[in-house]
Amino acid sequence: MFDPAAFCLERKAAELIERARRFGQTALAPRAARHDRDATFPIESFRDMHPEGLLAICVPEADGGLGASYRTYCLAAAELGRYCGATALSWNMHVCSTLWTGALADELMMTVEERAEHNERRRLHYKRIVGDGAIYSQPFSEGGAAAAGTVAFGTEARPVEGGFRVSGKKIFASLSGAADYYGILCTERGQGGQASRRNTLYLAIPANAEGVSVVGDWDPLGMRATVSRTLLLKDVFVPEDEMLMPRGVYFRAATCWPHMFLTLSPTYMGLGQAAYDFTVRYLRGELPGTPPIKRRMYPTKQIAVADMHVTLEQTKALWFQAISEARANPTKEQVLRAYAAQYTVMENANALAAKAIRTCGGQAMLKNLSLERIYRDSRCGSLMLPWTAEICLDRIGRESLYEAGETDE
Ligand SMILES: Cc1cc2nc3c(=O)[nH]c(=O)nc-3n(C[C@H](O)[C@H](O)[C@H](O)COP(=O)(O)OP(=O)(O)OC[C@H]3O[C@@H](n4cnc5c(N)ncnc54)[C@H](O)[C@@H]3O)c2cc1C
């Protein structure tokens, strides 16, 4: 999708992105339709990711991982999204647990004590991923305003001897029933304390801990293979060592590193590319599984493809810039650009898929081909909190017109 020479990617990044593309073509593409149809989790693909190093793509090299940067991860994830949106989105949930604790945390201000504590604890998680192929997920959403970033998480952690007792409910918990650890956000609350986002804890809860259950069914429009059911936590004991970040550091990270919330977009960047790729191959009569009938000679098709190409190039250019400039404490313009990139990718992925269906025609949207799945999966992008398409527009408008703290009074 992003030619290493044209986009000036370093050799290591190019190699990892190429590895992800090959994996997408060989492991994900052949399994995607079945898991989509049955709404089952592609656990075998996650098992295959382990020897490829892909589960540990963002684990620092010193801890046995591939040490990919934020940008390299995004570009690799887009390649997976091209071949199976749901697997790429699930992979995102797993990899983000290593990004929050890894490259991102390395850029945050921490006291010497916090840094030492953090490095020691994350080693435990990385060891599980690198050595055992452990899979992490990140169920943050609760069905209230917390996932949008406005109020404290309703899931609460009560400090007890040696750890915490955690109770609450997470909705849309992708990888539920498949992950080995749920990386949850919750509010630490002592006796009589006020709930505050500043007291957010980021904890890894073993899937087999007493009090953890997965409930409800999962039969959505798209992204069916993410199996995002409801996670219930009932007085679960979580040892202190399962803290993925020291106290107070998640709040700092979410405030200083807003581009982390852009990490849901690579999957959809890949889906947009997939819709375009499908259209070109279909109109050329080269799509496997379809008769070799060419439809490319009609001017209406050519205009439609040109239009898709322009949309795709615009989307890629803005997105590449946004993921390239991600860092701690970005400027206001960089944050506005990140919202714009998220909005553009999420909306354009589905617009490209819709255009692809209109252009290719009825036979192209039959369930034996990937386009209708791409269309359904891509529809989900603009719903992903905390940066839904609506929230991105809200923030772009407000933050363009008001400086921090400014009011009209
Ligand atoms: C396929 C899929 C997989 C997912 N996987 C995960 C996962 O692994 N982990 C996880 O934590 N979540 C996950 N989610 C959940 C997702 O991030 C959202 O939390 C979920 O879609 C919210 O649905 P809702 O109906 O409760 O939204 P609501 O909170 O009811 O919001 C509805 C809409 O209102 C708007 N809105 C909401 N709050 C505000 C606000 N404060 N200001 C302005 N507008 C607002 C938004 O545009 C939003 O789309 C997943 C979602 C999907 C579709």
Overall description:
Strands 1, 2, 3, 4, 5, 6 and 7 form a seven-stranded mixed sheet that branches. Helix 3 (70-83) runs antiparallel to helix 4 (85-101), helix 4 (85-101) packs antiparallel against helix 8 and helix 10 runs antiparallel to helix 11 (371-379). 48% of the residues lie in helices and 12% in strands. The chain contains twelve helices and seven strands. A hairpin with a 2-residue loop joins strand 2 (156-160) and strand 3 (163-173). It has 409 residues and is of the alpha/beta class. Flavin-adenine dinucleotide is lined by residues 93, 137-141, 143, 145, 147-148, 150, 172-174, 223, 226, 228, 380, 383-385, 388, 390-391, 394.
